[in-house]
Specification:
- There is one protein chain.
- The chain is an alpha+beta fold and 320 residues long.
- The protein folds into three domains: 54 residues; 186 residues, 2-Layer Sandwich (Nucleotidyltransferase, domain 5); 54 residues, N-terminal domain of TfIIb.
- 39% of the residues lie in helices and 19% in strands.
- It contains eleven helices and ten strands.
- Helix 2 packs across helix 3.
- The longest helix has 25 residues.
């Protein structure tokens, strides 16, 4: 990387607030194919020059009153390699497996914080399929999260991560999962629930394109440029997931940010907003509750005071 480009990237890096669009402007200026690619190239150059990154210090703990800490996380894995006598309806015996699937890279950031955290196998680690170093850095990142957001996270990333934690002697982590894939599947009728399709439909930031399976093969062979591109691709998924979360956030139902602070005023469960507008009542078989809409994110929730008096409650019948 030329000195002039490096110096401008370094200046930008120290003032960056995690907005990929600003890196994109630098990429356009100097002819790089994407902002994430330029960021990745700069990161490698910075390490070569021995300049410590702002993310290389220990991930800071958050004081109680600043929680919840909400993380966006995504991982990539190397494919399994097996011997086979055909392409269709094959059953692979354990003895057919040459290499099991392997943890390849991860990326993540905390909502409302500027820093991007990420890691990828080195060429030597990829050839040996040694994921010990990067799974530890991912564990450190997730250990500070109260809530983790990901697309298809519950049935893929979460299980892969737990398997890696178990293999490498790391203790389990406990956090609330917000899976944007499941939110989309439950609440909407997109023709496909893949993030690439949903984000394109919504006109928001999308995944970075790559050459497909060839990239994973090149990573498996330990090719340095491929590993750098994979990390760049992984980081791009974080920004795409973050934008998707903000769009579907009003439909999320499995967490309440108000639990993590000492405030006693009413707060929106999904964004913490305090501008709540009454929109009538919500009825259940056992009660009548005031319904409110958040003026910040649009989420509809209800208060916990039952407006039915004790005599009305006693008069209600249950249709069993």
């Amino acid at each position: 990387m030329e000195q002039k480009i490096f110096e401008e990237c370094l200046k930008h890096y120290r003032a960056d607030f995690g907005l990929g669009e600003s890196w994109q402007s630098l990429a356009d200026k100097y002819g790089y194919k994407s902002g994430e690619y330029l960021r990745s190239m700069f990161k490698n150059e910075r390490k070569k020059r021995g300049i410590k990154g702002k993310n290389q210090s220990q991930i800071r703990e958050m004081p109680y009153e600043d929680k919840p800490r909400v993380a966006v996380c995504d991982i990539e894995t190397l494919p399994m390699v097996c011997y086979s006598w055909g392409m269709y309806d094959q059953y692979f015996n354990i003895d057919n497996v040459v290499h099991d699937t392997c943890f390849l890279s991860w990326a993540g950031k905390y909502l409302n914080e500027p820093d991007m955290y990420s890691d990828v196998l080195t060429s030597d680690e990829a050839l040996k399929r040694d994921s010990h170093r990067i799974i530890k850095s991912c564990w450190d990142f997730l250990s500070n999260a109260n809530i983790v957001i990901g697309h298809n996270y519950l049935h893929f990333d979460f299980k892969i991560l737990n398997t890696e934690f178990l293999k490498h002697g790391l203790p389990p982590l406990k956090y609330v999962i917000v899976d944007t894939y499941l939110v989309a599947k439950k609440n909407f009728r997109f023709s496909s629930n893949k993030m690439e399709f949903i984000n394109k439909s919504l006109g928001i930031r999308n995944k970075i394109s790559n050459e497909g399976f060839k990239l994973w093969v090149a990573c498996s062979e330990g090719k340095k440029e491929a590993l750098e591109e994979m990390l760049n691709y992984n980081i791009g998924d974080i920004y795409s997931t973050e934008e998707l979360f903000y769009r579907v956030r009003p439909y999320v139902r499995n967490f309440n940010v108000a639990l993590y602070n000492e405030m006693e005023t009413h707060q929106c469960p999904v964004c913490g907003g305090e501008t709540l507008n009454s929109i009538g009542y919500y009825y259940t078989p056992a009660g009548k509750w005031e319904s409110v809409r958040c003026g910040n994110c649009g989420c509809v929730s209800r208060k916990k005071t039952n407006f039915l008096n004790k005599y009305k409650k006693k008069s209600l019948l249950i249709n069993s």
